[in-house]
Write a structure and sequence with these properties.
By secondary structure, this protein is an all-alpha fold. Helices cover 71% and strands 2% of the residues. The protein has a domain of 212 residues. It has a two-stranded antiparallel sheet. Strands 2-3 form a two-stranded antiparallel sheet.
């Protein structure tokens, strides 16, 4: 009886092309070159869209640590995005702080929020954790909409763009390169975390919490570490988002935003860094590419997402594929 041949992977050709470190390095270098010259190639409007895609990449990388590495379902990730943005907005406009002085405060505020919310709730599992994180995200948004210090429903405006060693970061191209550098740093940190002892602990906890605990892993502390590190990514993204736009409002941090960040992670492939990056770009670029279809573009986009989930249920670039 003849043996059945293994079913060819949809990514077989790509995997064969990237089967050596030299080829992967060459492909990475080519991508970096294209991204470096993208503002000159595609023009100002495309630069703004690509900047937004890089912002989503940073936030999706942070959420990937929570969802993809540690296996926690977070439906309120926009809350940390809001904490970073509002901390910078309040300190720069109300108290006259320099942006670079507000950045560590924004990170600390997000870490503190992550510890306060994550400490007692990360003992929960599955749907219960999702409900708590959803509530946290809505609490932050409603508080921002009603507190006087946050500008209430009108938000905060007049946030000044920062200076760096005599360079005034003010134009869309300037912010594009800032977000590109932040995305590269975020990718490098994510890779190091995935290959660290903590990253391996996240992997064990994601697959079987009880077995991980039996092996001596403190599952609550490990999950809290993922939650806090994800909060740091979110706060940094929010801080630079605030100075990029110069104004923020509660509508920028709604449940819809949390859904889009989660969509980028799941669509690309949870736990897979190239997949998460690809997912973030798809979520941002696809509606723009379909803009000529008018009001039908989101319908077409939704149908495309359904097809991807049907034929690639593990994501566009799942964990099983080569790095």
């Amino acid at each position: 009886m003849a043996e059945l041949e293994p079913r060819p992977s949809a990514w077989g050709g790509l995997n064969r092309f990237l089967d050596t470190p030299a080829k992967r390095g060459l492909a990475l270098a080519a991508i970096l070159v294209v991204m470096a010259v993208a503002p000159m190639l595609f023009g100002p409007y495309a630069t703004v869209i690509l900047t937004n895609a890089l912002l989503y990449t940073i936030l999706a990388l942070g959420l990937n640590i929570v969802v993809g590495y540690a296996g926690l379902l977070d439906l309120g990730y926009a809350a940390f995005f809001a904490v970073g943005a509002y901390t910078v907005g309040i300190l720069t406009t109300t108290f006259g702080w320099n942006f670079w002085a507000t950045l560590p405060v924004a990170v600390l505020a997000a870490m503190l929020a992550g510890i306060i919310i994550g400490g007692p709730t990360l003992r929960l599992r599955s749907d219960y954790l999702a409900i708590v994180t959803l509530g946290f995200g809505e609490i932050v948004r409603i508080a921002a909409r009603n507190l006087k210090i946050t500008g209430a429903a009108s938000g905060i405006s007049g946030i000044e763009q920062p200076w760096l060693f005599g360079w005034h970061i003010a134009t869309p191209t300037d912010f594009y390169y800032v977000f590109l550098v932040l995305a590269i740093i975020g990718i490098l940190v994510s890779v190091r975390l995935a290959n660290s002892r903590l990253g391996r602990a996240w992997l064990y906890v994601r697959h079987d919490e009880d077995a991980a605990e039996a092996m001596g892993i403190d599952r609550v502390r490990v999950k809290l570490a993922a939650y806090v590190i994800g909060a740091i990514y979110g706060s940094i993204g929010g801080a630079f988002f605030a100075v990029n736009l110069g104004a923020i409002s509660p509508e920028s941090f709604s449940f819809k935003q949390s859904t889009l960040f989660l969509m980028a992670v799941i669509l690309g492939g949870m736990g897979k860094i190239p997949g998460v990056i690809l997912g973030a770009f798809v979520v941002v670029l696809a509606p723009e590419i379909l803009r000529d279809f008018g009001s039908f573009r989101y319908l077409i986009f939704a149908v495309g997402l359904l097809l991807i989930m049907l034929y690639r249920p593990s994501g566009i670039w799942p964990v099983g594929s080569k790095r």
